[in-house]
Predict the 3D structure of the following.
Amino acid sequence: MNKRDIIYKAIDALKVETNFKADYHLDNINDDIATITFNLNEQQVKFQAEIRIEVKTYQIEALENKARVNPNFIIIAEHIYPAVKNKLRELGIAYMDTEGNIFIKHEKLFVLIQGNKKKDKENKTVTTNRAFTKTGLKTVFYLLLNPNAIAYTYRTLAGVTNVALGNVKHIIDGLKDAGYVLNKDEKKLMLTNKRELLERWIDGYKETLKPSLEIGKYKHNEQIEKDIEYNFNDNQITIGGEYAAELVTEYLKAAQFTLYTDMPKLDTMRALKLIPDNNGSLVIYKKFWKNEFFNIKNLNLAPLLLIYADLMITNDPRCKETALKIYNKYLKNEFE
């Protein structure tokens, strides 16, 4: 569902549930943004709307910042998770979705409709978008790192991502359906709505991809850090997460240690003399990308985009603060 469909269906659902009317105007440059005017109980209220496919918990902080700057801010989405709606109401952030749910608390105006769900018939027709399966997420990650690769042939893209050729077309079609790929001309494609695609990738990475990559949890000690520094400069073992952020920013003191490797599990354990520990602060994951990495102090770190994602999916405010520092310094120009 594209952004125009989302806002249209949200307004149409509002009309069904109430006698309220609304008009909207999409931004000419960025179709994530719209101006929406509500005619509610003989009052006319204008809001600046941000349109998304869905809203998840980790995105609330950014929405709160926007609502703080602009009290007439509303988030409009195809789907908003119940826990997120509860938090948005708690923070006084207006929202509406395509299911007819809405919350507005504005001066003397208060509107709350909740509990509506998609009809069973609609739910039965929903199919999985192949761009956000485990395989698709690996390909999307490569495209986020290399936006111009969207112009590659399917065969070339399959080669650089190590994804089966037959899957690539389905993944690109999925990105088109979700509104993240446009035809630049008759033959060339281009990525669009990259910031939202990044956020949706982070959702999929957290829920689908990352859990499938875990090799094991281990006891951490400083000798492991020294072993990585002196023995693994060839990208066999790549530093990610909080430890990578500590090295990049010199701001965060890592409490959890994340490593990515393409070495066999037993070889990794022998090389780093690892002791398994279900509660250990060192977690090792299978590396899911090829050659991209960020080099600092002669150490190979995971791509900055992955470091950012690993920080954002934690519940630690200091990690998220550090993620914002990395985003603003290294990623913002690419995604905004």
The first helix runs from residue 3 to 17.
